[in-house]
Amino acid sequence: MKVLIVDDERHVREAIRLLVDWKSYGIETILEAQDGNIAMDILAREQPQIVFTDMIMPGIKGTELLAWIQQHAPRTKTIVISGHDDFDFVRKTVMYGGIDYILKPIDPLQLNEAVGKAVSNRKQEDEGSEQEQRKAIEINQLRPVYWDKMLTHLLDDSTYYSSISSTMHTEFGLPIGALQCRIAVLATDTINPIIRSKFAGSEDLLYFSLLNICNEFVRKNSQGVAFRHDHGDIVIILWKQTENAAAFLDTINTGIQQALGSRLEFGVGSERLLPAGLKQSYSEAILVLRQRNMRVVRPRIRCFDPNENPRQSTVHLSEYEDRLRFAIRSGQEKPIKEAVQVWIDQVEQMKYINMEQLELWRHEYSVIKARWFKELFGDLPIVLSLPSESAYFIVPLDQEGCLSPQQWGVELEQGLLRLSQLWMEHKRQDEHIIFEIVKYVDAHFADDLTLQSIAERFFLSREYISRKFKQQFQENLSDYIERIRMAKAKLLLMNPQYRIVQIAELVGYKDEKYFSKVFKKLEGFSPNEYRKQVK
Does the record bear Coiled coil in its keywords (predicted)? Predict the structure, then answer.
């Protein structure tokens, strides 16, 4: 913090220097001026936070300096040091925002109190200013998000236009009156992998950069605005030169290529009245992108054509599900390659594959994958290192953005082989854990065994143990426990030294009557009848 001492008398300036404990107030720089003119120069150059000034000086008077400070440095705190007990001077000090009016000779206590008050006031203002700056930064950061929401809402509901049109006029230069508009949508699904790699997998950073490039062009002459739709699309609303939209978007594409190294694809809706036609134009732009033929090189800017109605025969991946499932269960590479190749051969024969078809395959595969996981791994709660969906259902595109079936086949084979290997490993672990449970039951048959206690011991779910045990031994775990107990009980019944109640307890039953009931149900005789028969 800096202070400036203004007084034509040197000894007064030195007295102020000596009487104030500057360090305790965080004041590091003390400047001096012997008149008002020099003080103004120092104020303009150094911008001190606190000024001490006399009222009677050669040239510019203290009251004039106070007025100048209030106009040119309003946040600077002033303390008047005067030898005149003049009401008008005091009034001017208050009028120009002075902290205190101190008479000579200077009282050290009064001087330090005034300095403390000035420092405190200035710090409070600085903190308030920083908060305002932070608030302004936050508002600027939130503004794009705000407009993303507003413009998304506008595409869905044209009646919303009346509430934001004036703000759009101020913010984006939207002309007032009847306008033609046109929507363009940037295709983010075919962005070159090289571009994506530059952003280290951060979709938000990639979209932010693309939006900045688009807005640099469309907002330059208030031709429109680019924003990110809630669905994730990058959308451009054009309201100037809509008839030349394709040429203008090509200019934007050149900018994208210069910045990121590759051109992208745009779908463009037809010209419509703003705001009523926004939704229709947007739907047309989306339709253009969804109908692109991913098997061929395409124009980068594609406009909606109402006469275009491509027809295609739908091919379902689900028709190949059984073949792929059996290949995975084989645990062998060759059957998996053969099953995948049958599917890829079908894809290769298709001359027209659009995004709707690819989305259908993705949806089908997610359903098939869910069935496979349920069938292969059940509801095992242990987290397995299974590949993500993208690891074995990637639809690779070449540098021109065209679908590459053969590369897709290679990646699909690798993913399915990994899935098959994980299943084989899981199957071996399955068998091992079930036999571990059998060994534990055989050793602890007399304990209070329940399905829940076994599940907790082996960190598995009750349902999983029950299902896997039944699959392995064709009987329920509870039946197995009772069978083991009855076998042990029959051996003990051959010894006449043991009473029935003792035998029941030795094989895990605290209630003799319940033991006898279970024994008779399984063996056809009561324990006593069995003992007599054996004897």
Answer: no
Q: 84-120: b or e for each residue (b if 16 or more CB lie within 10 Å)? A: eeeeebbebbeebebbbbbeeebeeeebeebbeebbe
Q: Convert 270-295 to b/e letters by CB count within 10 Å (16 or more is b).
A: bbbebbebbbbbbebbbebbbbbbbb
Contact 478, 451 (CB under 8 A): yes
What Å distances lie between residue 453 and 186, 433, 477, 523, CA to CA?
A: 57, 15, 12, 27
Distances (CA, A) of 369 to 331, 392, 415: 17, 10, 12
As given in the structure block, the two tokens for residue 80 are 């008047």
Residue 368 contacts residue 412 (beta carbons within 8 Å): no
Contact criterion met (CB below 8 Å) for 116 and 27: no
Rounded alpha-carbon distances, angstroms, from residue 401 to 189, 193, 262, 296: 9, 10, 11, 8
Cα angle for residues 471, 473, 474 (degrees, 5° grid): 65
- What residues contact 62, with CB distance under 8 A and at least 6 apart? 6, 36, 53, 54, 55, 56, 80, 82, 89
Tell me what the pLDDT averaged over the chain comes to: 86
- Note the pLDDT tens digit of each residue in 105-127: 888 999 999 999 999 988 888 87
What's the per-residue H, E or C state across 327-366?
A: HHHHCCHHHHHHHHHHHHHHHHHCCCCCHHHHHHHHHHHH
Cβ proximity of 353 and 294 under 8 Å:
yes
Per DSSP (E only), the strands in 142-230 are 179-187, 224-228
Are the C-beta atoms of 169 and 176 separated by less than 8 Å?
A: yes
Look up residue 23 and give its DSSP letter: G
Q: What tens digit of pLDDT does each residue of 165-185 get?
A: 998 999 899 998 888 999 999
Residues 6+ apart with CB under 8 A from 191: 206, 262, 264
Q: What is the DSSP string of 388-408?
A: PHHHH----B-TTS-B-HHHH
